Amino acid sequence: MTHDKVVLPAEIRTDFGKGAARKARRDYKIPAVIYGHGAEPLHVLLPNQETTLAVRYSNALLTIDVEGKTHLALAKDIQRHPLRQTVDHLDLLTVKKGEKVNVDVSINLEGEVAPGAVLEVDAYTVYVEADATNLPEQVTVSVEGREIGNHVLASDLVLPKGVTLLIEEDTVIATIDEPKVQDLGDEEEEGEATEAAAPADAESAE
């Protein structure tokens, strides 16, 4: 899924430091840096609302208009406020149409495992190579009917055309396991001891 048709207007950033960054955010602007292809990093300010909407999805592809010159860029690193989850800063990697890039893509586990089994997920994303202008939003694998002891491997992932796996095929994505039974033995023994002591306490009270 790409967002390159969304054009974000940017202005050159000339003030730096934490104070300048805080002021920019108060003015509803997001500090960002555009880099890649051997060019000098370009520091810019982006509009808050439009940018926040554009990077809702991972690996967002954006067209940045810097004073009339456009840059096709991939959102590689999004720094968010730990509490408000607002976007504080963006690292944007310049890309070209037809260029391959390496990214982490979300894994979508479809279906239900066999009755009496539970699904233990080991990985929520997978590292792949894909066309920068045609990155998948997610890759899918079915767990329908899988039984206890079965493993979902990276080789089981259904990859869109043009997407290449960059991890070992035998990497475990998920495991189908037995339900974990919580041991309440200590609590039961404590309860039994309390019940046994109750009559004695009642007799002493009489």
TrEMBL record:
GO cellular component: cytosolic large ribosomal subunit
Region (Disordered): 178-206
Ranges annotated as biased composition (Acidic residues): 184-193
SUPFAM superfamilies: Ribosomal protein L25-like
Large ribosomal subunit protein bL25 L25 domain mapped to chain residues: 8-92
Entry's Gene Ontology BP terms: translation
A Pfam family that the UniProt record links to this protein: Ribosomal_TL5_C
Domain Large ribosomal subunit protein bL25 beta: start-end pairs: 100-180
GO molecular function, one term: 5S rRNA binding
Keyword tags: Ribonucleoprotein, Ribosomal protein, RNA-binding, rRNA-binding
Source organism, top-level taxon: Bacteria
Biased composition (Low complexity): 194-206
Subunit structure, interactors included: Part of the 50S ribosomal subunit; part of the 5S rRNA/L5/L18/L25 subcomplex. Contacts the 5S rRNA. Binds to the 5S rRNA independently of L5 and L18.
Family of the protein in this entry: Belongs to the bacterial ribosomal protein bL25 family. CTC subfamily.
Function of the protein: This is one of the proteins that binds to the 5S RNA in the ribosome where it forms part of the central protuberance.
The protein's name in its UniProt record: Large ribosomal subunit protein bL25
Annotated source species: Arthrobacter rhombi
